[in-house]
Amino acid sequence: MKHQTIVTILDDQLTPSDVVVKGWVRTFRGNRFIALNDGSTLRNLQCVIDFENTKSELLKRITTGAALSVKGLLVESQGQGQRVEVQVSQFEILGDSDPELYPIQPKKHSFEFLREHAHLRIRTNTFGAVMRLRSALSFSVHKYFNQNGFFHLHSPIITGSDAEGAGELFRVSQLDPKSPPIQENGQVDFSKDFFGKETHLTVSGQLEAETYAMAMSKVYTFGPTFRAENSNTARHLAEFWMIEPEVAFMDLAGNMDLAEDFLKFILNDMLTNHAEDLAFLEDRLIQEDKSKPERERQTMTLTEKLQFVVDNNFTRLSYTEAIEILKNSKPNKKKSFKYPIDEWGVDLQSEHERYLVEKHFQTPVILFDYPAKIKAFYMRLNDDQTTVRAMDILFPGIGEMVGGSQREERLDVLEQKIKALGIPQEDLNWYLDLRRFGTAVHSGFGLGFERLVMFTTGMSNIRDVIPFPRTPGNADF
Ligand code: 4AD
Ligand code: MG
């Protein structure tokens, strides 16, 4: 008989019926009640053992973490707390788990401890819920784009161009680090390397996505991106996943509409179709809040927060307007910002972004028209010659969720920009070709997938929403 997942048994299976299930023991009470979990759902399946007719050596091996195969009759539960249970007629220990050694005991573990056991933390309720939601979010991303006429593009992970022009790249090389070939000028000779040039892991699929948008109109990439920035924060990873749509014939306003519609669709999908895991995480946060001082507690529950984003318009305002608000804000006047705002042109820090979102507007905020000098070279220059058609979407508790722009479609303006920045033009000739042959207005954005998972699950550290986090000094597993 084929085994079934616990979620199908709990949701769909009629009683009485014969079932076979396989999973891992969460708890074993009174030599009788096994709480079995297979990760298909948050809920455990109660399996009742006929302990009087079971050898005690076998009973002893039913320990937390052990893998079991169970056969029996699914019946209406006699006890409280579950609809159905299995009266076990036969069971087999597939894999023992020594209770003295197994790190994931049925008690509360700290997230720090669980991070060190990232290969086993998925067996806890919290990480099970987070990772099921992560999977659901990923599926929802593809669903949204598929329903809206986008093509999925697999942009390369190894790249010979540095899209963002920032020195945050991980090198990809086959050269022997102890004795690389050296040129006459003393520099490493990368022409002898695998690709005949210097190559890196990509920081973004955008430039490649632009080439596809300029042929297929609506495309998106969703892949891993890598940044060697030394930001040891709860919101940065060295390896993260980014969703990047790119659309021809769409301007910045269209870009904002797309991003807002996309985020609302995804969050609504989670609220509608993944309520069980959300409810569990919501309750976790409510419990966590109880140990916090009053003023640090959440004003909305997790689902209220998601619903709020779905139901309300994002506030849209220009960088210039934001600077005015920040300049005149209480924390700025009381000098409680770490980076005081005194003049137009400064880059916004996350304390500023969070002030705008969490204190001033209390909605997600789309900031646009940033100073050209703090943004990437490819952004469309405005007629004022000082700002570019950039947009960032800021979320409560997260800060920057999305970064995007309308792209510079004018060849001469882009060439000038590249020159001024000292980027070798031959590296970007292919990119400039898009402006030489059939150029058109086009726009896109990048959304950090882990930040979306953080917001959806209410987890406060980005290391806890990706299976195996890569951060400065840490690439375990
Ligand atoms: O703002 P960023 O750097 O934009 C780009 O890379 C553009 N090429 C995107 C585009 O227009 N196609 O990054 C986009 C988003 C950020 O808003 C943030 O959510 C996330 O990626 N992000 C990170 N997430 C986790 N760890 C990091 N180190 C991140 N850096 C950026
Ligand atoms: Mg950005």
Short description:
By secondary structure, the protein is of the alpha+beta class.
Task: Describe the model.
By secondary structure, the chain is an alpha+beta fold. It has three domains: 6-102, Beta Barrel (OB fold (Dihydrolipoamide Acetyltransferase, E2P)), CATH 2.40.50.140; 125-166 and 209-464, Bira Bifunctional Protein, Domain 2 (BirA Bifunctional Protein, domain 2, 2-Layer Sandwich), CATH 3.30.930.10; 169-202, no CATH class. The chain contains 14 helices and 16 strands. Helix 4 (125-147) crosses helix 14 (449-457). The site of 4-amino-1,4-dioxobutan-2-aminium adenosine-5'-monophosphate has 23 residues, from strand 11, strand 15, strand 16 and helix 14. Magnesium ion is lined by residues 400, 403.
Which characteristics define this entry?
single chain; 477 residues; alpha+beta; OB fold (Dihydrolipoamide Acetyltransferase, E2P); BirA Bifunctional Protein, domain 2; 3 domains; eight-stranded mixed beta sheet; five-stranded mixed β-barrel; 14 helices; 32% helix; 22% strand; globular; binds 4-amino-1,4-dioxobutan-2-aminium adenosine-5'-monophosphate; binds magnesium ion
| Structural class determined from secondary elements | alpha+beta
Return the average pLDDT rounded to an integer.
95
Helix content: 25-40%
Q: Widest sheet: strand order?
A: 6-10-11-16-15-14-13-12
- List how many beta strands DSSP finds: 16
Number of helices: 14
Unreliable segments (pLDDT under 50, ≥5 consecutive)? Answer: none
Largest sheet: 8 strands, mixed
By CATH's scheme, which homologous superfamily of the largest domain applies?
A: Bira Bifunctional Protein, Domain 2
Bound compounds, each kind once, are: 4-amino-1,4-dioxobutan-2-aminium adenosine-5'-monophosphate, magnesium ion
**Helix/strand order:** HEEEHEEHHEEEEHEEHHHEHHHEEEHHEH
**Gross geometry:** globular
Radius of gyration over all CA atoms, rounded: 27 Å
Strand fraction:
15-25%
Indicate the CATH architecture of the largest domain: 2-Layer Sandwich
Q: What is the CATH top level name of the largest domain?
A: Alpha Beta
For this structure, the CATH topology of the largest domain is BirA Bifunctional Protein, domain 2
Overall domain count: 3
Q: Terminal Cα separation, in Å?
A: 36 Å
